[in-house]
């Protein structure tokens, strides 16, 4: 091979391409060789200390007998030990008493987030932000009231209000349209149908609802169904809510979580969590 094709006299294998590209035989850099040997040494150490290869009658468990589930259980024991001083107090306390203890209330609010996610968020959204046709729990608009004891009662026994359908013989299409227009403006009492006595027995003389009945405030522009369009309001007036006589009625049922579905302690935790979302009274 000419000096021109190998100007530095570097050893090679003799394989040459285009008279310039040569396969050299010089050693790799030292840092590369150090990394190579460190890698296989670490592999050997790892397979000795931790579970690794199949073994007679099972698998080699390693010098430490470490398992991921074992580490998880140890972590849970440490967490449970921290939680225990709070959890032991909860069974003998009412939800109102928990709220009155700032440290305990803070613990419950944080720990109940998982409970809320598992049991409530599918309908009421993350952190109570609401979903279509399901109430927002993070505001101060309550059908049945936002006091802590009322929230406990709601979670325990569920809720299923009834609004009779007003379509057909009760109200004409014109009256329904006029009532829907008035409600959309937050002025339900100005509608002829209201003055006729079609609504105030449930929603109150001022249209602001009655929590004892779970009837909605019709003056605050907070909508239980839809987004407050005239068509949404007219549909609710016409077909009602949970009216067994109208097959097109809107369905609105909150299942009960008492009776074994959730423990009393978990229900109190959820009640405190919902109360502390921002709208509790």
Account of the 3D structure:
This protein has three domains: 12-59, no CATH class; 70-159 and 256-275, Cytochrome c-like domain (Cytochrome Bc1 Complex, Chain D, domain 2, Orthogonal Bundle), CATH 1.10.760; 173-239, no CATH class. A hairpin with a 2-residue loop joins strand 3 (54-55) and strand 4. It has eleven helices and four strands; from the N terminus they run E-E-H-E-E-H-H-H-H-H-H-H-H-H-H. It is elongated. The protein has helices at 30-49, 68-87, 95-100, 102-119, 121-124, 148-157, 173-184, 192-195, 200-203, 230-239, 264-275, and strands spanning 12-17, 21-24, 54-55, 58-59. Strands 1-2 form a two-stranded antiparallel ribbon. The termini are far apart. With 281 residues, the protein is mostly helical.
Multimer state:
single chain
The percent range for helix content is: 40-55%
Number of strands: 4
Range of strand content:
under 5%
Secondary structural class: mainly alpha
* Count of distinct structural domains: 3
List the helices and strands and how they pair.
Layout: E1 12-17, E2 21-24, H1 30-49, E3 54-55, E4 58-59, H2 68-87, H3 95-100, H4 102-119, H5 121-124, H6 148-157, H7 173-184, H8 192-195, H9 200-203, H10 230-239, H11 264-275
Antiparallel strand pairs: 1-2, 3-4
